[in-house]
Amino acid sequence: MTYEEKTLSSEMLYTGKIINLRRDIVMTKGGRESAREIVEHNGGVVIVARTDDGMVPLVSQYRKAAEKVVLEIPAGKLEAGEDPREAALRELREETGFSARDIRWLTDAYSSIGYSTEVLHFYLATGLTPGETDFDEGEAIDVSLMSVDELRGMALRGEIEDQKTIMAILLLCAVMDAETETSFSLDTCFG
After folding, report:
1. In angstroms, rounded to a whole number, what is the distance separating the alpha carbons of residues 151 and 54?
2. The CATH number of the domain where 97 resides is what?
3. Which domain holds residue 21?
4. Is 67 a catalytic residue?
5. What is the pLDDT of residues 107-150, one digit of tens each?
6. What's the predicted TM-score (pTM) here?
7. Taking a C-beta distance cutoff of 8 angstroms, is the pair 22, 10 a contact?
8. Considering 4, 137, 179, 181, which one is annotated as catalytic?
């Protein structure tokens, strides 16, 4: 049986520009108190885009947490109260230079539900028009275009380490299957 923990107290430990950290004391099943450390985050957008010739724009940038350059689907954080769809269009244009004629919501997902409030909003962008990038101050991003087959192979070989990028590839495969009226399976996408 599922048990909903009751929050007994909450203390803000850190307030930052991107995240806040709080400690909640909760009542667990069986009447025991326990601490929960929660990262508060406004959420973000993830944009899997596809050009008319089937190429997917990706970005490579140095990620301090990983201490290396990582290949990713374009994505960005939401400002408080910002519309995710508008943020997705903005982030795609800023990071890749592409503007999208069509953008469609795919799903929402917690990035790490065990300790973070961050929800990622996934979008598919099509009808792309190339343009100029507009990186944030201090950003150093390389943009590349890859086919779905290339991305599929890279994911299978463990060359894509970013979970939102792997999930975006799976979602794109599911959309492509639906467009061709086949049933989605991992074998179709990664087989």
Report:
1. 12
2. 3.90.79.10
3. 6-41
4. no
5. 999 999 999 999 999 999 999 999 999 887 888 999 999 999 89
6. 0.91
7. yes
8. 137
